[in-house]
Specification:
Number of domains: 1
Strand content: 5-15%
Distance between the termini: 59 Å
Number of helices: 3
Radius of gyration: 19 Å
Largest sheet: 2 strands, parallel
Number of strands: 2
Helix content: 40-55%
Oligomer: single chain
Order of helices and strands: HEHHE
Shape: elongated
Strand order of the largest sheet: 1-2
């Protein structure tokens, strides 16, 4: 590994985890395309992180990790358990 590659790796900050919770399919699709309200929320979180880093944020690459989940529906309890 060359010195330049090591320096590039050192500039990457820890991943930023953004949990968006339960969302509908349309919003998730828009997020995948880089549009919509969820993308605005992710962008807002990244701006907050950059503001917290201050002048140290200029030479860093921030990597957002976005979590969107769905709750598994519970089965109804019937006659047969």
């Amino acid at each position: 590994m060359q010195l330049e590659d090591r320096q590039a790796i050192a500039r990457v900050a820890a991943p930023i985890v953004v949990s968006l919770g339960k969302e509908n399919r349309k919003r998730i699709r828009q997020l995948k395309r880089g549009r919509g309200k969820l993308m605005d929320e992710v962008t807002h979180v990244l701006e907050q992180v950059r503001a917290n880093f201050g002048e140290h944020a200029d030479d860093k690459v921030f990597v957002p990790v976005v979590l969107v989940y769905r709750r598994k529906r519970r089965r109804s309890v019937g006659l047969w358990r």
